[in-house]
Amino acid sequence: HRLFGEKKMLDIKWIRENPGEFDRALVRRNLPKQSEEILMLDAAKRQLTTLIQELQHSRKEKSKSLGMVKDKSGREFDRVKRDVEHINQKLEELTCQLESSNAQIGRAHV
Asked: Is the model's pLDDT at 4 over the cut of 80?
């Protein structure tokens, strides 16, 4: 199995499965061990991705219910609309965090 691709990008799946071998390969190249840091960043990225997907699903469901509210000027409509707006704000924040996490993992080139 090749540890590094042509662009020297890291194979995160391989590192998850072989952190010790990955660190030994780095040491042989006179580089510091990085598996712990990379796996920590990867775990955070995966959590963010899951949370984003859950919020997207929630937004979809709430948006559907918004369309079914008969009284568009009533409290129920306003409450659901505020919920969707809040979800959209949270999704924007989390998407920025995910992009930052991706960038951090991307900087871990060897």
From this structure: no
